[in-house]
Write a structure and sequence with these properties.
Elements (H helix, E strand, L loop, with lengths): L5 H17 L1 H20 L5 H7 L12 H12 L20 H21 L10 H18 L7 H7 L18 H31 L5 H18 L2 H5 L2 H4 L5 H14 L2 H23 L8 H17 L12
Helix pairs in contact: 1-2, 1-4, 1-5, 2-3, 2-9, 4-5, 4-6, 5-6, 6-14, 8-9, 8-12, 8-13, 9-12, 12-13, 12-14, 13-14
Length: 328
Amino acid sequence: MEPFSLNTILMVFGGGIVGTALGGLWAIILCALLGLIGCGILLTGGSDFVLAQIAFGPIFGPHTGGYGAGLMAGCYAVWKKNHPGGSAKDILSPLLHTSGDVLVVGGLLSVAAHLLLQVVVKIPIVNQSDGIAVTLVVMTLLTRLVFQKEGPLGQSASIKEHGLFGTNNYAISWAGWQSPMGKNIPISFGIGLLSAGLAWGFKTQLDPLVAAGQVTGLGGFLAPLVIGWILCILILIPLLVSTGTIQQMPIMHCMAIIGAWTFMYTGSILAAGIAGVIAGIVQEVSARLFYNHGTTHIDPPAVAIAICTLLVNLLMKPEFLNMAALFK
């Protein structure tokens, strides 16, 4: 797709409106469902359009309608004092139950995120990170600043009361049920291993189709990379439809994609598990830095994906440290 064509901009705008109406978490679940459909199409030798242009592209990617729109428009809705949940940290409530201008703002901010991504992917070193994650983080930090007049670290009063990395015994934590390292490290290691296995299986199936010209190289690379991420997003449905401990599902999509990314370079399942652990720790640190003391949702998995993808690429690519060669 031509990123600056009128049709692309219109589809991004429309996806942003829909994603805003759904709210952040429902939108990213829909994004994952579209990704699962796209992976299925590729396994039959079909086009990569649904996976690469809708689910992980401009039309309904996580930086636009597939998540970011709900987060960004949520900040605006709180500023307008008509957010249905009353908090810009609320990513569960559909923003359909606010006003039409909030939906339009979600569409417009999605277009802004799409345009920002075109810049991000051209910045040296920064373009070695996950551009979608970088764009999402930058846009949500900007909307926090513009609509809530709040800096990246959140409210100074909360930081003073609890300490920058303090959690008040996990009372102010993002996903406090998995914050303790005694839980975080095992689950991160496990999903890193599992995601690597999924990547291995998909790669084994798709490589011959790529070699035969039935599937594009992009599709053959993207599906193994994101299948673990997709499944980890789908298991978050209880966060929306349940309460209590049933609601408290492990949030693992960051560790899944970093584990798969590491496996794609190294072919090592163990390295993928270790990468998952590092990603899980970075995710928790990101929550304590940017989420816990704030009044808006700065997504800890997105921050960790941006940081860890950059690290993996700098460590593994031949033009940088080329550590992938050690696994050959």
